[in-house]
């Protein structure tokens, strides 16, 4: 007798989403489940309980990544990983990262209940600190062996709290994060579902995005130092106003993108801190963040060099001193063509409206790509809203994404020899020194 098809339950998935959304929710309606806070740790414990109830073997590694495993027929075969994160930015919505984890959970729960056993193990991973409270994607970087003791003990959040101290406060040993590295030979591929966090799918009326490439990015903290002085007695031509340097550079950004970027380039000044910060004092120092993104690493290098030149010129013209710190550099990656084809086939088989597209946001998949091939599935974000309580995806589209995830899992993990991904995903362009 043929095995009946496996189905995901949107009712169970929506119940899980509602329950987890209450962990870290505050009076303004936003979710505050930042990495290694009490709310984050409560969310991890909740997830472990749900994984156990779903019949998964549950563990937590030294980076506090939560892992649930559904056993396959061949314990020696490298596993299929499914993952994302449940930590949030401050005042977040309920879907970013979380939807990918809980969709993966529902797929594995449905498979376990069906009694069907995959050919290989399937693991669900909820990575720590994808949102970069401490400057990087700590959980997936630990998982792939991309951290070292210096990084662990020097990393701080925007308020100056050290990563090591935050972990210790939660009863964790930060040194154990160095033991979280996964043997690449034990991993066959990685699959992640995520909200798009942009308006493309929503405006096009499409249900699924088949991600072909994930943007790279660099983040700088830039300092322009001038001279503080009295706002009333210092003539305009005699000022060394640090903030005017920021304003000049902000006006330069469109030109830099036009001359050195592509239609996929993005640049953002997200925060500016002025010192002394008094209403009647010319700012003597300005520190600001610069976030630049593109899917081509050569373009990123060109934009970085163009930004340096522009800042040097502005500093010289304004009589300022210029310096910057590289907070992160994450290269772009291409998703594995065979995994993308499996996602597309699953969407087409179910008659869903889909498109191939790129991701303008960074994801854990980008880090995991250093050890195995990766694939990503997008579902629409209504009006492109994300990182806010207004973030939402229609239930029909959530269910469509879950069905595509299940279909992709079945295509990969239930075949003794699936169309095997080629190799760990690489940059969409040649590396430059």
From TrEMBL:
Residues 413-433 are annotated as: Disordered. Residues 216-314 form the Peptidase M20 dimerisation domain. Belongs to the peptidase M20 family. Binds 2 Zn(2+) ions per subunit. It comes from Haloferula luteola. Its EC number is 3.5.1.87. Zn(2+) 1 binds at residues 85, 96, 194. Residues 415-433 have a biased composition (Low complexity). GO terms for molecular function: hydrolase activity, acting on carbon-nitrogen (but not peptide) bonds, in linear amidines; metal ion binding; N-carbamoyl-L-amino-acid hydrolase activity. CDD domains: M20_bAS. Keywords: Hydrolase, Metal-binding, Zinc. Pfam families: M20_dimer, Peptidase_M20. PROSITE patterns: ARGE_DAPE_CPG2_1. This is N-carbamoyl-L-amino-acid hydrolase. Zn(2+) 2 binds at residues 96, 131, 387. The keyword Zinc applies. Its cofactor is Zn(2+). The keyword Transferase does not apply.
